[in-house]
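Exercise: predict the fold of this chain.
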Amino acid sequence: MNLLQTQGLTLAIGGRQVCEVLDLAVEAGQCWALLGRNGVGKTTLLHCLAGLRRADAGKRLLDGDDMARLIPRHIARRVGVLFQQQEDAFPGTVMETALIGRHPYLKSWQWESEQDQQLALDALKQLQIDHLAERQVDTLSGGERQRLALATLLTQRPRLLLLDEPSNHLDIHQQITVLELLTRWAAQAEHACLMTLHDINLATRFCSHALLLFGHGEVVTGTTEEILTEQNLERLYLHPIQKVAGEWGQAFLPL
């Protein structure tokens, strides 16, 4: 089952071609890495896939429905988006922020139910920050705020997560913990995840598929086993790369 599909998607920004005639199919149970050099348009493409930016041509389909015909509330019930930077326009607690994830399901002026509260608490526990539930958001560290953003998305309960650098601000232990959580979540029958990453080895270890943005519109997609090769990665990053064998499988080192 394709949760997200593009047909002939073409996108440019500032005179730079991000992708051209991209046909992509993200199926339930898959976890995708979006890789490329700085400035090639990874974030722009992610926002386009989420319906936050118009494409120049082509279609984006959610569960087979044309995204252009869906209202934002219905898109938000299906897709959760993590931005690179978290902005808190108003003061609030960690719990209040997590509950923002329930807004697509609430009517005007409707308060969150006990069930909504429990969903938020469960998500905070999964990200190991439930002990911070009553803390003000502006007192959190960068890593705590990043985990709160992810907890808010889990509270939202979408089927598809589009994540822009989910490992940002996290130490090594938390990077592994969070990515293990996300891959377990994506492996569930009706979920999928697509994330931009800078670390090739995190993509190799945790993602089943990858989308490589080379610039000038060129894109390569496939399983990580097929397309994460020394040749592709050297061309992708314009830097020599060596593959080594490790306990968790193959890893790539810059030379």
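Check your answer against the key: Residues 172-187 form the longest helix (16 residues).
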